[in-house]
């Protein structure tokens, strides 16, 4: 259980430390937008990222923090852009879908490059391009020989 949270010099908090104490097993933070609720949740979720902040655990026993905030939603829920109303749940699935989207983009780029190279090789009608030039040069060479 968290006993106290000391926050300073981050986001909306000044360099003078602010102390949240008298915490219970379950705590509910509420306030207007921009007052630091998400900052507190980020400090609880990963204190190591905030060297100016301190989370004090009861009897020094740190537990696995479970924070439900905007960061959690970004990591664990993904709204499909292709299928409205369909979403995935879980950080690994979001990462997988992101990787699939990236690879689809790479595949489209490679497909486009193949189409361009094929057109250069064979021409728009399939009889021109570099192969057509080669055939013309070979015919000219045969005539000269």
Structural notes for this entry:
This protein is of the alpha+beta class and 145 residues long. It folds into two domains: 2-66, no CATH class; 76-144. Helix content is 44%, strand content 13%. It has helices spanning 37-45, 70-76, 91-122, 129-144; strands spanning 2-7, 18-20, 54-57, 77-79, 87-89. The strands form two sheets. Strands 2-1-3 form a three-stranded antiparallel sheet, covered by helices on one side. A two-stranded antiparallel ribbon has the order 4-5. The longest helix has 32 residues, at 91-122. The mean pLDDT is 84.
Outline of the structure:
This protein is an alpha+beta fold and 145 residues long.
Keywords:
single chain; 145 residues; alpha+beta; 3-stranded antiparallel beta sheet; two-stranded antiparallel ribbon; 5 strands; rod-shaped
């Amino acid at each position: 259980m968290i006993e106290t949270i000391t926050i300073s010099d981050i986001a909306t908090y000044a360099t003078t430390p602010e102390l949240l104490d008298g915490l219970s097993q379950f705590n509910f933070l509420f306030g207007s937008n921009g007052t630091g609720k998400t900052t507190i949740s980020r400090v609880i979720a990963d204190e190591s990222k905030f060297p100016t902040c301190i989370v004090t655990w009861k009897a020094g026993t740190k537990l696995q923090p479970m924070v439900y905030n905007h960061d959690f939603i970004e990591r664990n829920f993904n709204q499909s852009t292709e299928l409205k109303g369909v979403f995935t749940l879980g950080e690994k699935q979001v990462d997988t879908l992101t990787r699939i989207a990236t690879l689809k983009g790479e595949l489209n780029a490679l497909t486009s490059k193949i189409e361009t190279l094929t057109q250069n090789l064979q021409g728009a009608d399939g009889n021109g391009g570099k192969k057509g030039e080669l055939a013309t040069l070979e015919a000219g060479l045969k005539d000269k020989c």
